[in-house]
């Protein structure tokens, strides 16, 4: 997969799953932006997918 395709896939994932995510909004409101961000990165399956795509981008540079 080339870099452009990876960026496109990241954009699709973010707009499809993260933009209207109830958990993200809830955690931002109740516990703050840092906690919500950490939750998304470490515990959310979508966040794990984004980490894998980011790793692919890093490996391509």
Helical residue percent band: over 70%
Q: Report the count of strand segments.
A: 0
Q: What is the ordering of alpha helices and beta strands?
A: HHHH
Specify the number of helices. Answer: 4
- Radius of gyration, CA atoms, in whole angstroms: 13 Å
Structural class: mainly alpha
**Low-confidence residue ranges:** none
Distance between the termini: 13 Å
Total tally of structural domains:
1
* Main beta sheet strand tally, sense and closure: none
- Kindly report the average pLDDT value: 94
β-sheet strand percentage: under 5%
Apparent shape:
elongated
Tell me what the structure shows.
The chain has 61 residues and is mostly helical. It has one domain (3-60). It has 4 helices and no strands. α1 packs antiparallel against α4 and α2 (22-31) packs across α3 (33-42). The chain is elongated, with a radius of gyration of 13 Å. The mean pLDDT is 94.
Short summary:
With 61 residues, the protein is mainly alpha-helical. The protein has 4 helices and no strands.
Show the helix and strand layout:
Blueprint: H1 3-18, H2 22-31, H3 33-42, H4 45-60
Helix pairs in contact: 1-4, 2-3
What characteristics describe this protein?
single chain; 4 helices; mainly alpha; elongated; 61 residues
């Amino acid at each position: 997969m080339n870099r452009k395709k990876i960026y496109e896939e990241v954009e699709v994932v973010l707009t499809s799953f993260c933009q209207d995510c109830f958990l993200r909004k809830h955690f931002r409101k109740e516990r703050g932006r840092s906690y919500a961000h950490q939750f998304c990165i470490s515990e959310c399956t979508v966040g794990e997918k984004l980490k894998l795509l980011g790793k692919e981008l890093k490996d391509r540079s």
